[in-house]
């Protein structure tokens, strides 16, 4: 409070470990995905076949505007929606391959529900959760997607308000690529909430990204100007990832402000102490690598 009793916009402690925690977000939304299909040439989604057509017909819920979805797919709103459909399908297929009966699903760092919405709308998974440290995203889901999905705000300290052994599959799409600290504690927290046999689908930047990224990648355009990246701007110096885990941080006083790379060897050695590394895919399905961990 200021001396005259008026409230002042001070930094709040919650925003050191989360984002937009004051809440009270106002949103404008887009229409349902089907309205944006025509003219969207970003990606050819025809190989998704009948599954996508069915999902498109039944998803009558609004889409988030580009700025409310981490910029994903720019103005290609239908492709944004279809990418979430594809990722949900790939996760379901991984569950089938690894013998997981999907009754409880959590998307860590779900943003405004790119993937969560597909489980929520399909309605065949009894418990669907999404969490994000950005309160705006959580509010978006809880306001605009069906009540079969519950979104909650978490923070950068690895704890989740979910019971032990309650979830069959966790995904984290493009989240460990930004987790600057406590990565092993996060993995242990995911292990705690997973049921035995449950899986975690985690996307990563590895030495394979490190060696191949170039000016066509948003990731590289940003990194190129980071002072710690200066020795590696020249591609010839980027054949090997020099450390097991490399963190490029932009701000010291907030979460979600870094880019993180992992050596695959490190992931296999360290992460397998926590869960079994069952699969390791290169650029699957887009630019990030994926590891699938399974709780014994
Ligand atoms: C690049 S976006 C990816 C969003 C979403 N997973 C997708 O694929 O559309 C990263 C998201 O992770 C969230 N995030 C970053 N660190 C997090 C953490 N420790 N816990 C939960 N969410 C986190 C960010 O707020 C952001 O919404």
Could you give the topology of this structure?
Layout: H1 14-17, H2 49-58, H3 77-97, E1 104-108, H4 116-122, E2 127-132, H5 135-144, E3 149-153, E4 167-172, H6 183-193, E5 194-204, H7 207-212, H8 218-223, E6 245-249, E7 258-262, H9 264-271, E8 276-281, E9 289-294
Parallel strand pairs: 1-2, 1-4, 2-3, 4-5
Antiparallel strand pairs: 5-9, 6-7, 8-9
Bound molecules: S-adenosylmethionine (SAM).
Question: Briefly, what is this?
Answer:
28% of the residues lie in helices and 19% in strands.
Give a written overview of the molecule.
The chain has 296 residues and is of the alpha/beta class. The protein has a single domain, classed as Vaccinia Virus protein VP39 (Rossmann fold), CATH 3.40.50. Helices cover 28% and strands 19% of the residues. It contains nine helices and nine strands. The longest helix is centred in the N-terminal third of the chain and has 21 residues. The radius of gyration is 19 Å and the shape is globular. The termini are far apart. The mean pLDDT is 95. The protein binds S-adenosylmethionine (SAM). S-adenosylmethionine binds next to strand 2.
Query: Which blocks of ≥5 consecutive residues have pLDDT under 50?
Result: none
Bound molecules: S-adenosylmethionine
Which structural category fits the helices and strands? alpha/beta
Quantity of strands, as a count? 9
The CATH homologous superfamily corresponds to: Vaccinia Virus protein VP39
Mean pLDDT: 95
Specify the biggest β-sheet.
7 strands, mixed
Radius of gyration: 19 Å
Series of secondary-structure elements, N-terminal to C-terminal: HHHEHEHEEHEHHEEHEE
């Amino acid at each position: 409070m200021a001396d005259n009793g008026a409230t002042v916009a001070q930094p709040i402690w919650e925003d050191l470990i989360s984002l937009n925690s004051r809440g009270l977000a106002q949103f404008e939304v887009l229409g349902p995905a089907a309205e944006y299909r025509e003219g969207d040439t970003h990606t050819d989604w025809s190989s998704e076949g009948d599954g996508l057509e069915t999902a498109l017909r039944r998803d009558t819920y609004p889409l988030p505007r580009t700025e409310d979805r981490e910029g994903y797919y720019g103005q290609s709103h239908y492709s944004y929606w279809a990418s979430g459909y594809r990722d949900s399908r790939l996760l379901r297929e991984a569950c089938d391959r690894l013998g997981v009966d999907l009754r409880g699903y959590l998307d860590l760092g779900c943003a405004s529900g790119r993937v969560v919405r597909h489980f929520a709308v399909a309605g065949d998974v009894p418990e669907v959760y999404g969490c994000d440290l950005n309160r705006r995203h959580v509010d978006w889901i809880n306001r605009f997607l069906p009540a079969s999905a519950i979104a909650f705000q978490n923070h950068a300290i690895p704890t989740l308000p979910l019971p032990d052994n309650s979830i069959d599959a966790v995904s984290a799409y493009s989240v460990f690529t930004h987790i600057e600290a406590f990565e092993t504690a996060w993995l242990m927290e995911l292990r705690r909430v997973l049921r035995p046999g449950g899986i975690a689908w985690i996307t990563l930047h590895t030495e394979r990204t490190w060696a191949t990224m170039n000016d066509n990648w948003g990731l590289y355009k940003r990194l190129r100007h980071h002072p710690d990246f200066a020795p590696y701007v020249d591609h010839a110096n980027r054949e090997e990832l020099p450390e097991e885990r490399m963190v490029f941080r932009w701000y010291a006083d907030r979460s979600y402000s870094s880019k993180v790379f992992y050596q695959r060897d490190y992931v296999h050695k360290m992460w397998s102490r926590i869960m079994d590394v069952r699969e390791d895919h290169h650029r699957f399905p887009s630019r990030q690598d994926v590891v699938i961990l399974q709780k014994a």
